[in-house]
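hey all, quick one before standup. I had two proteins in the batch that finished overnight and I want to keep them in one place so we stop losing track of which output belongs to which input. First protein below, input sequence then structure tokens straight from the run.
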Amino acid sequence: MATRKTVPATAATATTLSPPTSVGAKVGKALPVRERRSPDRLARPCVLVTGAGSDLGRVLCRTLHRDFDVIGIDTRAFPDRPKDVEHHEVDLRRKAAQTIIKKKRPDFVVHLGPMHDDRRQSRGAALLEATATLLSLVEAVGAKKLVVLSSASLYGPSPTSAAFLTEDAPLLGGQHHARMADGIAVDMMVQSFFWKSPSTETVILRPVHIIGPHLQNQISRALRQERMPTMLGFDPMVQLIHEDDLTAAVVLALKPGVRGVFNLTGGTQAPLSRILEVRHIGAVPIPGPLLGAAAARLRALRLARFDPADVVHLKYACLVDDSRAREAMGFVPRRTLMQALQDM
């Protein structure tokens, strides 16, 4: 019967099979780690999204992460985020947030303005301070692109305004509305940055009312109710844009060479009565003075989140022209008004 020969372990074999005996022991050259991601994915640009924990911020991050490395910053959590989205639950004004941004040095920054945040405490000086901090960081890290999500509501509904307002129209929505005044202040601050830092391509998007199945903003909640108060004797024209079209516009705004202010609409408009009819919502006509008082009372009792200052939108229209976005950005909404309303 043949016997198996025993081969003594050599020094090389012992080094390979057993761990080093000391911390200072010399180790051979490490083999390169095999990267699971493709070269195209490794070369993806990095985009920072502020307000990533909001409803709209979550929708936006889920779209952007397909083509970008996404970093989110918000005081709210983002528990159901995609696995490759990096989220930091911190205030943008804090040093910790500033350290993160300086370390990550994002190529692009998307800032969700005050009109897309339903938190009552996110108002006034805090908003301006956060925006000013972000603008200084964008300049410090040399970001290529800054996209700020403003709102077409800043123009303000008025009985004397033109049928379709362009981006050059004055922002008059803050005359009797504190939240609109905050939004206008942020919008104007970013416009100043546009001229101060020409090396960063700055884009301001002013969308009309945004609706969608993932949003819990004021207009989306109103269109899910069985009944809705309207102002007696008035039926204003309304423009809406679907959340998917809004995120598609943000992606277009991140392309090189795009800069400036752009209105965004869903492509068409309809009377408020027609929109309620499509959604099978019963209209409850109320005289104007009573409607404003009722809205204020319900808000004070925390029975409704409807801002009394928004009653004017039930009286007058605020229609905008989006031809500049179509020509310069190639933006074309994919959802018709009917499709957007049915997707609620």
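OK second protein, same deal, sequence then tokens:
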Amino acid sequence: MPRPHAQLSIDELEVLVGESRKGLDAIRAELRARRTARAKQLLKELQPPEPVRDHFVYVIELAPAVWDDKKFRDRNPDQDPTERPCLYVGMTSTSPEERFDQHRRGHKAARLVRKFGVKLRREFYERLNPMTRDEAEREEPALAASLERAGYAVWWN
């Protein structure tokens, strides 16, 4: 595949990108002013696609017996399980309810959730969902970290 801009520096490419954006903005404005079906179709083709928000983060409360698990204790050395419940944070492309059921049935289950999962804790995640896969990949560790800072013993992968 030919690379017509291979000789350009990053700064020169940045200028081209800016000019292209301005040109596209002008084209979009002209297409919006026209009322034909073809203009509407061209405008639709120039619009960036809406992100697919089909992923979720979720939080599951774990039974107090999870504290007997050495790996869990080692990951949460500064937490007191008598003060707050232990939690598992995950992400999924199914609903949090379906994913919790999968954990309990043993389908792609996290060992700790299969063994110690009690219930979903919607208050920690409902406001965040749904999101794109990229957002969920960023949000899962961020949510786990914020719960840890709040004093919860947390497991996440």
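Flagging for whoever picks this up: Residues 10-46 form one domain. The longest helix spans residues 10-33.
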